[in-house]
Fold:
Amino acid sequence: MALTNDEILDAIANMTVQQAADLVKAMEEKFGVSAAAPVAVAAGPVAAAAEEQTEFTVTLDKVENKMGVIKAVKAALGISLIDAKGLVESAPSTLKEGLSKADADALIAAVKEAGGEASKK
Structure:
């Protein structure tokens, strides 16, 4: 039996940031498409000035609630408890590279909600 659009959307809404990113990548590969939004091309030097950063690196800067941040990092990145603990204990540390703006913002929000501070570059 085929899933309805609502069932698919509900399943996606319950995914971690990493799981959603993996799903997008798998769909791009399977269907030979790109999820990146098309960008209008301007002429001359205006095009270079108009380019926006599309990939971000999220860094864990500060930890107030160690256990909460470990749990949030583990869930958001889909990594083991030991790996999450290592990242949190070595702060400041890079959590994830090559994230979209939305995924970077979601990871930063998860860390903040758990009792930490993170930033994107």
Notes: Residues 17-31 form the longest helix (15 residues). The chain has a mean pLDDT of 82. The helical segments are 5-13, 17-31, 45-50, 66-77, 81-89, 101-114.
